[in-house]
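Input sequence (650 aa), recorded before submission:
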Amino acid sequence: MANSVQLVDIICNRNMDDGTRKRAVEADREKYAKRRRELAKKENSDDSEPEDYVPYVPVKDRKKSKVQQLMQTLPSKATTRLQLQEETNSSGMEELEQETAEADVTTGPYSHISLLDQHSELKKKAEARKETAREKQLKEEEKILESVAEKTALMGVAELAKGIQYEDPIKTGWRPPRYILAMPESRHTKLRQKLQILVEGEELPPPLKSFKDMKFPRTIISAMKKKSILKPTPIQVQGIPAVLNGRDIIGIAYTGSGKTLVFVLPIVMFSLEQEKKMPFIQNEGPYGLIIGPSRELAKQTFEIVTFLAAALVADGFPEIRTALCIGGVPVKEQMDVIKRGVHIMVATPGRLMDMLAKKMVNLDVCRYLVLDEADRMIDMGFEEDVRTIFSYFKGQRQTLLFSATMPKKIQNFARSALVKPVTINVGRAGAASTNVTQEVEYVKQEAKVVAILECLQKTSPPVLVFAEKKQDVDAIHEYLLLKGVEAVAIHGGKDQEDRSRSVDQFRKGEKDVLVATDVASKGLDFSDVQHVINYDMPDDIENYVHRIGRTGRRENMGTATTFINKGCEESILLDLKHLLIEAGQKVPLFLATLQSENEKYLDIGGEVGCLYCSGLGHRITDCPRLEAMQSKQAQNIGRKDYLANNSADW
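Predicted structure, token format:
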């Protein structure tokens, strides 16, 4: 400082004498000292803080302090975050985890664990919370399924009243070939896996890959070859041995898989065996009873049975007499066969119940019962009808239930009527055939009829057109006739003669197009159908599966075109979307954009989709069909036309 003052003095006061210069330097020193004191005083005054001053604490430090305080207040047993999660709800824990994510790096129970390990544990906890949500969903579904389940077993009135229960299946004289019995169980398991056969039950019979191993006569095998049936299909590989062995079964397979032969071939052989032992006398029988939900299906089954029976007679075997009991046909014609003694009866429930009530027929010696399309007869409120039929049996029977769509609810209920049942499932219950190319088109309501003409150009005839309402069937039929298309139509409002004639003309190729309600969608076999057109989307996905199953049969390929628009329920469109995805089909953009609120729960607990209706786009908690069914029961609304349940049928 002195040097600086001297330098200033030399530059600025060069001409001053020594005394003056000395006084000036001292004055400057005093001036600078005073300034330093003022600056120091000012700095001291700035450092002073008011009494209410709160220092700033970084957010990270505040979170760290909050965690420490919280953990100090908890009991010693909850000093880990996993224990803390057990004592707080999941939403609160998620919020706490977000707040303490950074703080845990340097403090808390995980301060000594690497970030990678922390991430792994957090991921495990997230999965645990997800499992908890799934468990809640499954428990809720179990409660709903239990609430809608029929409380009374599917048994006859006498059996229920007397508490009669059969412990063992019916014994038969059929046995698999010895070389098959000598094979290890691993061989049978591999064959089932190869053919995608899922089977449940006790003492399962082995699957057989040829009709020869099933011990059918050469006459039967030759007759099937004439129908181009050379080897068993997957459902027949496992189903026929089980039926021949006397087992009760639930058979589920996609449409066109050959389910009819699974119960027709054994019933013909059983009837032949009984006729050889002791010929049937007048008014005796039937020994086997097959029940179908519609006249057309019953008539088709009857024709298959009579074809096989005729082949046996032609080769010198005893005659197997078969009766067809359906509405719309004079009872006198049916009674002529029954009075001679009938081995096999094919019937619809209404006509059968009427004949039983009038004692025109009895089931005293009947030991073989088939419910074809069983889920429809049970699910649509016909439990009492089935129980009434069961009550006419005088002893134990072998019961067989078949369908392409059988939800879990129906399977559980149906088991109450069976003895040690074998459940045979080829593919998922309710799945669509992979032989069918499914196309979905957005068509406005007023343009649908014209769009049918365009769709008819896609493939060669024959073509099936399905509509939900009878008046739509009549309108489409009339329009096609005006356009020069050879078309016929059937629905529940037409008399049986017209319906039979229309189906026969279509099957023989005399007509190119058959327009129908869902009376033609269940079980009818039109082997040459190239194209199925859905004029409208049915109310539930099961009817859709049955409809498109009329094409792509017997390993042939087929096409199904479905018209949809804004009038379709979103729930059924979601089911359709997921069905297309399951079958590996192209999903149009207007379907792909649809999202379900509970889509994350569509595949949980080992069950896919809804347990009530087999829909893939929802669970039973959101099932629109269950809700509609409950509303219909409350309002006592009549049944739909697809069961063809007009007064003549039922």
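Checked by second reader. The chain has a mean pLDDT of 80.
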